[in-house]
Amino acid sequence: MSNEVMFGNQSSAEYADTDLFQSQRGSTSRMERKDHALNPSFVLTPDKTNLFVQDWGSGRPVLFLAAWTFDSCVWGSHIASLVRHGFRCLAVDRRGHGKSDAPCFGYDLDTLAEDLSCVLEQKDLRDVVLVAHSMASIEAVRYCGTYGMDRIGHLVLTSPTTPYLIQTPDNPDAVPICAVEAQLAAIAEDFPKWVAENEAPFFTPNTIPETRNWIKDMMLSVSLPVALACRRTIAEADTRGDLRKITIRTLILQGDADASAPLDFTGMKTAKLIQNSDLIVYPGAPHALPITHRERFIADVLRFIRS
């Protein structure tokens, strides 16, 4: 939760053998796509991973992408609200999360962006409002940088982990690599303990216990190898080049009390790299802004879409 900008010493290669991964990839056949058409709750990727997609309502599509170790259920209230406002709302479970398959490969950023492309294409979504929270921001941005924006009408990045978290000579205002290594080591040693120790700054003081427990259970339902692989992907994601390619209208929503992805490291830098973007800062809001400030978040998204 807190300190999401910091990661540990376990490489994702430990959980995703590159040669094995490449050998299992391939084009999705027409017959396989036809089979999935009979079960519209799932999308099939080229490496034969089934991705679960919630799909509610009708109208202009809004596609929700969840944070690290969150699944599509976290968007339930948001979906219910936007469906009432006349939108078709979709939410996808990232591979390894929720009801999607959990292969032992494919948690690198390029594959995750390809997964998003599969959802957009197989659902034939156009003029999409793409709403991404936390880790999902790197997936959305890499998708736009790689596949273009023909299918995307508006982009919403919430508590983003873009543009690049690791401190390097050309990225000095970021997280030192030693902190990156220490944090992932702590997660690998005792994930439940790490979640408990970092719970407080992730929420607001008035977040009820039921909500806290729901989110913690959701996080811990993800297998540790998958959680570690995704954390490494967040840490290593350099999306500066992708951000510069984005020309569609973009809204960035972030709290100034975000301990997981500090505003100065993420949202403010991201806004400077996207030429047609607006940044709205929520005073006192934490990383879990879509949950803790749900009503304002929904109102800001609706206002942005309709403006």
Topology:
Layout: H1 18-24, H2 30-37, E1 42-44, E2 50-56, E3 60-65, H3 76-84, E4 87-92, H4 109-122, E5 128-133, H5 136-147, E6 152-158, H6 177-189, H7 191-197, H8 209-220, H9 224-236, H10 240-245, E7 249-255, H11 267-273, E8 277-282, H12 289-292, H13 294-306
Parallel strand pairs: 3-4, 3-5, 5-6, 6-7, 7-8
Antiparallel strand pairs: 1-2, 2-4
Helix pairs in contact: 4-5, 6-7, 6-9
Q: How would you characterize this protein structure?
A:
It is a single chain. By secondary structure, the protein is α/β, with parallel strands linked by helices. The protein has a single domain, classed as Rossmann fold. 41% of the residues lie in helices and 16% in strands. It has 13 helices and 8 strands. It has helices at 18-24, 30-37, 76-84, 109-122, 136-147, 177-189, 191-197, 209-220, 224-236, 240-245, 267-273, 289-292, 294-306; strands at residues 42-44, 50-56, 60-65, 87-92, 128-133, 152-158, 249-255, 277-282. An 8-stranded mixed beta sheet has the order 1-2-4-3-5-6-7-8, sandwiched between helices. α3 links the parallel β3 and β4 (87-92). α4 (109-122) crosses α5 and α6 (177-189) crosses α7 (191-197). The longest helix has 14 residues, at 109-122. The chain is globular and about 45 Å long. 47% of the residues are buried.
